[in-house]
Amino acid sequence: MLLSKSCEYAIRASIYIAAKTAVKKRADIREIADAIGSPISFTAKVLQKLSCKQLISSVRGPNGGYYIKDPLAVYLVDIVRAIDGNDLFSACAMGLQTCSDTKPCPMHHDIKPLRAQLLTEFSKASVGETSADYWLEKYFLK
To answer: Residue ranges of the domains in the chain?
Structure first.
């Protein structure tokens, strides 16, 4: 895929956490890792990055866990940028440093509209909206 493994897990985890938040619950690290099919230590590192960017929140203690303050205000593009940066939407498909409209690589004009479409789709999909049908089992996360 186009996303790093960390970013894939971050998106899955965020969707799961948003689904839990919607039913007024928090999710602990083991539960999240199991739900998305990720190793616990890897999941913890990904969630730490999301927490540092204030995309998710956590509470310690017996009733603690991860949650999202406003799942409708966190978009998939925010998660991608927090984990992978902006390269998915702007970097040269061939890895050239100087690729641009004025000095394009051989694939530039074909890839540019696809990158724009990805940016549009990731920008209009909030984790709250994306997670809405999780409990109805309309999709899976692992």
So the answer is: 5-135
**CA-based angle 57:61:65, to the nearest 5?**
35
The CATH code that applies to domain 5-135 is: 1.10.10.10
Could you tell me the pTM of the whole model? 0.92
Residue 104 amino acid letter: P
SS3 assignment for the chain:
CCCCHHHHHHHHHHHHHHHHHHCCCCECHHHHHHHHCCCHHHHHHHHHHHHHCCCCEEECCCCCEEECCCHHHCEHHHHHHHHHCCHHHHCCCCCCCCCCCCCCCCCHHHHHHHHHHHHHHHHHCEHHHHHCCHHHCCCCCC
Q: Is the Cβ–Cβ distance between 22 and 45 less than 8 Å?
A: no
- pLDDT tens-digit readout, 48-98: 999 999 999 999 988 899 999 999 999 999 999 999 999 999 999 899 998
- What is the rounded CA–CA span in Å between residue 69 and residue 25? 12
Residues in the chain: 142
